[in-house]
Amino acid sequence: MRTIAEELTLLVSQAAETMGHVGFSVDACVPTASAQHGDYQSNFAFRLGKHLKMNPRAMAQAMVDALPPHPAVVGAEVAGPGFINFRLSEAWLAQNVGERLAADRMGPPAPGAEKTVVIDYSSPNVAKRMHVGHLRSTIIGGALHQLHRFLGWNVVADNHIGDWGTQFGKLIVAWHEWRDEAAYAEDAIAELQRLYVLFGEKAKAQPDLEDRARAETARLQSGDPENVRLWTQFVEVSLVEFDALYQRMGIKFDVILGESFYRDDLKPLVDRMLADGIAVDSDGAVIVPLGDVEPQFAEQPLLVRKSDGAALYGTTDLATVYYRQKTWAPDKVVYVTDMRQRDHFRQVFAACRKMGIEHNFVHVYFGMLRLPDGAVPSSRSGLALNLKEVLDIAVAHARKVVDEKSGHLSDIERAEIAEAVGVGAIRYADLSQNPQTDIVFDLAKMLSLDGNTAPYLMYAHARCKSILRKAADEGASSGPMVLEHPLERELALAVARLPEAVLDAANSYRPNLLCEYLFGLANTFARFYGACRVLGADVEPNTTASRLALTAATAMALREGMGIVGLRALDRM
Ligand code: ARG
User: Does the pTM of the predicted model rise above 0.85?
Assistant: First the structure.
């Protein structure tokens, strides 16, 4: 299925072809800022005219004249210095939205999984609390996962947890020396984290601790049963805690293949790279020089083996690339981490290019999360420490609002709504901002009923549903759509644009574009509902039927879009 923008872009390229201008990349048509200028705009004639040193307006006019007819288009005219503005047909819009309503899906019909994407996200480190960076990776990665699913990609969601490395030797020493069994039973990760920190402090005064830790790591690596048992246990208790959080947030993975999964691949991989001349010896260590493929890294090779023989984070990433290639032959691989890992991934991707692995690698990186006073949350400020607490606070705040607004609902219903709003608000506040900026963690703002927030969208959806319930009680039902009022037209167009918004968000790895779309849709619905009566003795039955269909289509588009960004579309609030 083509989106409206794609459909129009195709028309423009056909017109250009008729005119004999072939081989140019055609600019995509984009929605106009205001309906006065039509619904979509093309800049191609303007650019082409300039490029060919012809009058851009004349070029645009010639292109308009050459446009093949299309049922969606009732008007195409030249505007400004050489833009083409398209106006869509009301009948076509009504039919388009009506068909999708009947098919019970506003999004594009899933084209069947032809392409595969591996998305590497969340990826926390075991025996430690997730920090805010992992929370953002979980939320943004989860949305990218759903965006691709919705578009029909075959998605492999892989949680590449940090479950291997020298920290386990330290942890094992600390466990034997200072563990507090009661504290471990109470909150395993807190206790492991305490032990790890304690080890660091003690090792400053007692350097032999480091030697012992190295010995324990070596024993773990060579399969010592006791150390393997401890390590397995540390991994398991961590996964239990991570899982609780994933469940609560509705986050799913297809596989959890942590760093340890690749541990036996690392040595042969580096040996092979040495043999192939991709990696070279450097004072006993092994590096991959990158200057030949990425001049920027001429002075920054990728270190793949330390002089003591140990492999590194990047070595594991290279082994992971091979495994994914062999197992899923993905068309692209997307990594979601904070921006501090930008250079790391650039180096890894460059090394892959040297090894002849050509698929599309994407690093989606994001900024920091700040508190309203500008501070970055740290263990000291408390926010980094306990995400469960953060969610609980959001839910408690939401509960207060729900109690005020929806006292008529049962206690169980209100608890369910508060959970959905609180957790949804945290996710949505993150997703609704450009990932590449720092975001502000402002609970009051994210729970506000006004503005681009989770509760605003959730209420908009519940409102549509309540109108539909009321109609059903009154025996009114939906029927063919007729778009007469400007706001009916605007709403139908907004609904019809869902696939486009999903595609834009997926292609640019920016879920915030979908959030903006949803906010716009909810706004348009509010204006429509303010201006166009749906039910009432004095409303024409055909008008009621048409407006009910529009309302149902809006609810469906909201529900589908909200599902992608992790918001539950409740029927009543
Ligand atoms: N565990 C890593 C960290 O906490 C993130 C892993 C990201 N994925 C990867 N393939 N390197 O920083």
Answer: yes
